[in-house]
## 1
Amino acid sequence: MSIDGCNILPIAGVALHAPARTCAYHVVRTRASLQPRLPLQPAKLLLSFGGVTVIRTATHPAVSPRLRPAASDSRGRPSTCLVTGESRSRVSSHIPDPRPRKMKKPRSHMETDTSTTAALLLLPEDVLADVLRRLAPRGVAACRCVCKAWRALVDAHALLRADLLPRSLAGILVNFHGLYATELFSHPSTASRFSVELHVDDDLLARSVELDEDLSRHLGYRPTGVVEDHCNVLLLINNMVVNPATRWCFHLPPSPPSRADVDYTYDVGHLVHDPTISPHYEVFLVPRLCPLFDDSENDSPVGPVAEQYSEWPPSPCVLRVFSSKTER
Amino acid sequence: MEVDKGKGEAEETRKVAEADRDTVTLKSSDGKLFEVSKEAAARLSTVLAGMIAGGSIDDNGTDLKQIGSEALENVVDYCNKHANSIPSAALISSSISFNTAPFKEPEEWERKFVDRLSHDALFDLVEAANFLGMERLLDVTCHKISEMMKGKSPDQIREVFNIKNDYTKEELEEIRQELAWAFYDD
């Protein structure tokens, strides 16, 4: 069982889609501090997830509105976030001018006594912010722990995008085997705001949400669409990339038509995103060959067609990739 | 040393065409004089460009009281090297942020240029570049410093830059909890 990586936790026939690796980990850690550490019993893990389904509603009046992608929250409602960073009053809402060229006072010779290399701290704040801005979020987080001045700097310049980096669990999405819809488990108070937004663009799914309104009110979860893949905060649903926490969603462009000479294929979407490394994500459409069940080869999921196309060279299957960086 | 060569050439230039010079003389805080091509200075430094355009360039050495001779030497060195490499407008990137546009990677020679510098020289150069409004040089130097931090733990960063830890143990634990995702495999 891997907590890390793609955080699909197969538990007794259940594939568990945690909204974010960090969340899953966070929970496990919390439990680990209470009881002897791993290996986790599958059943216990599930229970512990149920028990520690931490739900906090956080609004970031200072941070969110301007950092979040424009499409996200035009309704002005408080967002139910996976993010629960304490709203930082320290965070100033002004966007610092990219490069103010301020005259800096010459470094006094008194200061040089303290140390030669602490000189880094004497750099103008904007320059230092410029340095830290180049680091991946994990690096920025590390710098925030270096000293108080740097923490203030990171916060003042909003170098860590709190909206992208959730820290606690607001709900769990589960793909049960044998069910076609992904289930969302979360606290009833947040479930409605959380999941309806997922389907606002999809009539079919919206209807299914209505149908099960009463049920979900009772059970505290709502049926949702099928989550094809997930990676940290992002979900891949019906050709959309969705961040349920910020209600951001992006429709993938229609993929180029597949080759006509390849039958029996379908594409399986895979999402790759690590917010601690880069704000961008990529979607891989991996062509799969439909298993052909031949009477003579009842047990083999790989039929003759699959064999034919999986041989090297040349495979007519095309791996299509969409990157948010290039938007292609 | 290219600077010396530049100086020598500049000496000659001064004699030949006193009235129509194509270099500017810069004076460091400790009184040393450096020659740099006017074209390169104007192209690479917004502050120098302004000074040249505004006619506040002193033929006997424009005072840059904020910049020490070592840093100024590096600045001039950079300008000369830049003039020798292929100058292109594309090199001058606009405001860079991890969250918005990708930073244009330093070129090989720029990398070498900052790699050979000591920490102190590098920081001085950053400051000089900031002061003179040399966007590209600032990019390159900031990039270098951020590379020095990359992948390091807070302890390692403190060690590299000799920064004093002014957190108490409890504060540090709290701040790590806040950002637990960043330390999950420490």
## 2
Amino acid sequence: MENVKPEPSSKLRHLNKLRWLTLATVFLMLILLPFIHLYQTYEAAHAYDLLTPTEKAISDAMESLTSPFVKEPEELSAIKGTTWSGTLFGLKISDPLAVLGQIFASMSLYWSFILTALIPLLATLLFGRFYCGWICPATLIYELNDNLAAWLRKAGLPVSRRKLDRRIKYVVLGVGLALSVYFGAVLFGSIYPPAIIGREIYYAIALGGFGAGAVFFLLTLLFDLMVSRRGFCRYVCPGGALYSLLGRYRLFRIKRNVKSCNDCAKCNVVCQFGLDPLQDNFGMECNNCTACIAACPTDALGFTINVQDSAYQGPGHLGHQYKKEQEGA
Amino acid sequence: MKRRRFLQYLASSGFASLVAGGGVKAANTPSLRYLRPPGAHDEKKFLSKCIRCGKCGESCPNRAIKFFSTENGIVSLDTPFIIPREQACILCMKCGDICPTGAIPKIDYKANAIMKSVHMGRARVDVNLCLSFQGKTCGVCYRACPLPDIAIRVGMLEQPHVLENCVGCGLCERSCIQIPQAIKVIPNHTRVS
């Protein structure tokens, strides 16, 4: 019986930490930008003496935070918006779902808007649903919610992990597009969690209260807790459906190296999207979150450049089943 | 098979209730007097173009732009509006600059361009409420107007008269010292012509 347990040393396992950093940065920016907006309005009004103590505190904090970078508060307008549609130093970037919804709602092609989705579109063609795992501000809350679900489970409360049909979200996408045509309005913005999060944070900070979207988002959190693990992302989210379709033939995908796999199935447990890395079954849904890479004790998971997942490679060569088969043969 | 039947039933009934309920709620509330951001297209085209990103509100230095919840129908959910009595538009045209979708077109910050492209509404004076028409010289609306003598002129005793070129920014309504205000902006999208 060999007792070789090499420490996992692959650099890829740090990607998951990097991902959390990215998610947190995006989320913090969404909180910071409304405050910067408030600061800009205070400056534009030239009425520092008339501000309430709270407003003064906001103004002072934002001034000390931004003064190393810009001379005039006006220059802070370089970064505006949310992940739904934002402006970065003159470059406008929009969610492909927003563009698709607008095309259907207005039944016209407005190219200067459509082109703002070009960068996310190309990135999605290359990396699949990476937006869902790496940028989406709702993902941060959904993953924390999933940790909460694990605690509730430990405390003995029933947390359901039902499996539904993955194709529901394509129905949601199709029905949403049909309703957009019917109403002549982009309705996705109201049920798409990242759009809701960006908006509601702005409402709460700058306009002094949450809107209708916050209620909807709380319902999706409850749905995740009580019906299915990460259920909204997996089964309902129209953006996830669009990204899954676009990422069908993505180039960068996670692959199991069968020679160093020991069939421990930690990857399957850690995958919040309920995928099956152990049987090489990633499919369209994988959001390249790399949680399975970080969890793998033998560095069997890594990235590959291929437009298709490999077929099932059989049990891992370090596992019991493979050894049994070898001895039997 | 049973589950699939159930899901089909769920999807179709959800669709039907949305269409039925939404169709009723889709009509705008006529009692609500609001303006769209400056330069916005007419209501129908605006709603079909706006993606509800909220950047117009984020770029508004006067904090005039607010956002609908469900009070104006689900079609107007999260779209921007201005209530001029609370905070009026200062015609800085920054919302048009930042709007990615063309729902608020980009308009130059010049008086001619603004007069040509901005049609938010038209101010209307209520002579029974206006102080100047009651013999108490006021003229505050004229002084608040960003286009004096083009959009509004004053006659004897500073009595205001709104002209054809009024773009409907609402600064006159915001500044009116009467309660209720004697000058009101009638939005273009609710005006019966």
